[in-house]
UniProtKB/TrEMBL annotation:
Function comment: Catalyzes the formation of L-homocysteine from O-succinyl-L-homoserine (OSHS) and hydrogen sulfide.
Record's protein name: O-succinylhomoserine sulfhydrylase
Listed GO CC annotations: cytoplasm
Chain segments annotated as coiled-coil in the UniProt record: none
Keyword Chloroplast assigned: no
Keywords, in A-Z order: Amino-acid biosynthesis, Methionine biosynthesis, Pyridoxal phosphate, Transferase
Pathway assigned in UniProt: Amino-acid biosynthesis; L-methionine biosynthesis via de novo pathway; L-homocysteine from O-succinyl-L-homoserine: step 1/1
Gene symbol of the encoding locus: metZ
InterPro entries cross-referenced by the UniProt entry: Cys/Met-Metab_PyrdxlP-dep_enz, Cys_met_metab_PP, O-succ-hSer_sulfhydrylase, PyrdxlP-dep_Trfase, PyrdxlP-dep_Trfase_major, PyrdxlP-dep_Trfase_small
PANTHER family the record matches: CYSTATHIONINE GAMMA-LYASE (PTHR11808:SF80), TRANS-SULFURATION ENZYME FAMILY MEMBER (PTHR11808)
Family note: Belongs to the trans-sulfuration enzymes family. MetZ subfamily.
Class in the EC hierarchy, top level: transferase
Length: 394
């Protein structure tokens, strides 16, 4: 076993680079990649002690691996948490959280503007196992309160929402959850800990799709749940038993991505704000959704709760689907793909991709109109992004 860095008094920018590093007897400077499924014991007695948790040490990579451990420690440090458990993807993190903390008969209250697969997990898979979900408008605190039942155990919130960037008040919703003796879980994928630390605002657990901003380069899938040791322990035991574990190679890639998290987020948010302002002034644009704009309905809350407005800008072009598709087809720099969180900017038409499986009526009600486009701003020069978008607007 190796010595741990104890760096928790340092700034988050430093933790993103230094926290969790675990060097072997070779004193390597970069985090080592431990591609091994199992670890050996010196004696049978030592093996026995390690398996029942009497002696610390690595046994099997489904639940203990030094590279994965380094990722967990670094993410926990960034979220200001005691502990993190890594998972194979963001969805595996959400699933592990629900499977370990809830049982048949329990009830979830969740914001309605969630990542599509999260909605499917709640209303499909979990409901099949007797866990029901009520979806509410995230900004309507009365609706959260009214949805509580005697069986409510957990609140689930994503803020800002995708693609309309609605911002919900984490502290206020945490209070409502705690009055109901329920836990608040926040999906912090859009902001990353560089912009928002939900645990400090009263949330009990944070889930991540590390696939997005933590990697930052669109390379690997990964996820994590972060929180107090007491809440993470049952989730760890579930991952240990059920196996939705993060691969050491992916953890190693994520660790290098996290080293540049802060500088990427700052630059991507600055470019997003500039792009949002430019779009807002463009005559071919009907409306822009970006928390950093004064015109955003929850601008004041966003600026209180998040460090910056985020890197996702959504906007409605005049002329409906035809105009939106023309813009999408016209881009030569921005990638036509539904992913986000990459240094490469991406553009998506939500009505025909991420939200295509719901009815037109439900889409319109959710504000996913035919002219809506979502740009996840990367690290290219912002003028190149403006020119790329302008090409499709004339
Ligand atoms: C992508 C995403 C997820 C799911 O993460 P995967 O790593 O793709 O499984 C969950 N929540 C949000 C907000 C996401 O954007």
């Amino acid at each position: 076993m190796t010595e741990k860095n104890n760096l928790l008094s340092l700034h988050p920018e430093t933790l993103a680079i230094r926290a969790g590093l675990e060097a072997s007897q070779f004193h390597e400077h970069s985090q080592g990649l431990y591609l091994t499924s199992s670890f050996t014991f010196d004696t049978a007695e030592e093996g026995a002690a390690m398996f029942i948790g009497q002696k610390p040490g690595y046994t099997y990579s489904r639940f203990t691996n030094p590279t994965v451990n380094a990722f967990q420690e670094r993410l926990a440090a960034l979220e200001g948490a005691e502990r993190a458990i890594a998972t194979a993807s963001g969805m595996a993190a959400i699933q592990a959280c629900m499977m370990s903390l809830l049982k048949a008969g329990d009830h979830i209250v969740a914001s309605q503007s969630l990542f599509g697969s999260t909605i499917n997990l709640f209303s499909g898979t979990l409901s099949k196992f007797g866990i029901e979900t009520t979806f509410v408008d995230a900004g309507d605190q009365q609706a959260w309160r009214a949805a509580v039942k005697p069986t409510t155990r957990l609140f689930f919130l994503e803020t800002p929402s995708n693609p309309l960037t609605e911002v919900a008040d984490i502290a206020a919703i945490a209070d409502i959850a705690h009055e109901a003796d329920a836990l608040l879980v926040v999906d912090n994928c859009f902001c990353s800990p560089a912009l928002q630390q939900p645990l400090k605002l009263g949330a009990d657990l944070v889930v991540h799709s590390a696939t997005k901003y933590l990697d930052g380069h669109g390379r690997v899938l990964g996820g994590a749940v972060v929180g107090s040791s007491a809440l993470i322990e049952p989730i760890y035991l579930h991952v240990r038993t059920a196996g939705p574990s993060l691969a050491p190679f992916n953890a190693w890639v994520l660790l290098s991505g996290m080293e540049t998290l802060f500088i990427r987020m700052e630059k991507q948010c600055a470019s997003a704000l500039e792009l949002a302002r430019w779009l807002e002034a463009h005559p071919a644009i009907e409306r822009v959704f970006y928390p950093g704009l004064a015109s955003h309905p929850q601008h004041a809350l966003a600026m209180r709760q998040q460090k910056l407005g985020g890197a996702v800008v959504s906007f409605v072009v005049k002329g409906g689907r035809e105009a939106a598709w023309q813009l999408v087809d016209g881009v030569e720099v921005i990638s036509r793909t539904a992913n986000l969180g990459d240094v490469k900017s991406t553009i998506t038409h939500p009505a025909s991709t991420t939200h295509a499986r719901i009815t037109q009526e439900a889409r319109e009600k959710a504000g996913i109109v035919e002219g809506l486009l979502r740009v996840a701003v990367g690290l290219e020069h912002v003028d190149d992004l403006k020119n790329d978008i302008a090409r499709g607007l004339c």
